[in-house]
Specification:
Blueprint (H helix, E strand, L loop, with lengths): L19 H11 L46 H9 L6 E4 L10 E4 L8 E2 L12 E6 L5 H8 L7 H11 E11 L9 E10 L6 E9 L10
Parallel strand pairs: 1-2, 1-4, 2-3, 4-5
Antiparallel strand pairs: 5-7, 6-7
The structure holds S-adenosylmethionine (SAM).
Length: about 220
């Protein structure tokens, strides 16, 4: 079987490469205590999922909130998974950040409406190799969801997102991946554990899979 190559990896970054540590510092400073509500600019709130993640402790006077999306993290998920990521909460790089609020780690999304810290494709992150403490990814789970729920044209394949997360995470750093599948560990990483993630009885269950990058880092030369 021929191996599919990642079409985005061959595209060079246009413009700035970001410093993940600078975002992590800002994220730590931006934590504040306003209660959460649907953003006033949202034309219509989507049907809420069974359990909403509201992050009330993280909303502040920090400009407009991201538009709400389907498929938000269950309440308290980040706090629960934090010991497995072995880093500070503000250091986590959230790829496909959806409506995570400003101050919740370093947020990357491809849609401007998500108001991320870094507007980028998760398959081609403008970050240096090994520069991030930990990565959490919550991409759309199918091509149909990609277009229908988020209006994004191209389904980002788990293998491509995982390869890029493995590139940017530091040696020994961990990656948490939420999807209906547990992806194969990318080269230079190992599978640690998977948890079932459910929003209630009779609801579909997703896997939260954790991977760890080798201490020696990835050897990308010549491949
Ligand atoms: C399931 S939602 C994430 C929800 C998020 N966990 C939360 O709690 O709000 C999926 C997100 O992936 C984003 N997305 C889709 N394709 C992407 C890509 N190639 N790169 C980065 N983000 C992408 C969508 O814009 C959407 O916001």
């Amino acid at each position: 079987m021929t191996k599919r190559s990642n079409p985005k990896r061959s595209v060079p970054h246009v413009g700035k490469e970001y410093d993940a540590n600078e975002f992590a510092r800002q994220s730590k400073q931006q934590t504040s205590t306003r209660s959460w509500s649907w953003p006033v600019h949202a034309e219509r709130a989507p049907r809420p999922p069974a359990i909403l993640v509201l992050h009330p402790e993280l909303m502040g006077e920090m400009g407009p909130a991201p538009d709400p999306v389907y498929g938000q993290y269950p309440r308290g998920l980040i706090a629960k998974i934090l010991p497995w990521l072995r880093c500070e909460r503000h250091e986590i790089l959230h790829v496909c950040s959806g409506c995570l609020p400003r101050g919740e780690g370093i947020r990357v999304d491809i849609r401007p409406a998500a108001r991320p810290d870094i507007l980028a494709d998760g398959r081609n992150l403008p970050l240096r190799d090994g520069s991030v403490a930990a990565v959490m990814l919550d991409p759309p789970y199918s091509p149909r969801y990609t277009k229908g729920l988020y209006g994004v044209g191209e389904y980002p394949r788990p293998a491509h997102l995982m390869a890029e997360a493995a590139r940017v995470v530091r040696p020994g750093g961990r990656i948490a991946f939420v999807h209906y599948i547990t992806p194969k560990p990318p080269r230079g990483t190992r599978f640690v554990r998977a948890f079932g993630l459910s929003t209630g009885f009779d609801m579909p269950i997703r896997a939260l899979s954790i991977f760890e990058k080798d201490q020696r880092g990835l050897s990308l030369g010549g491949c």
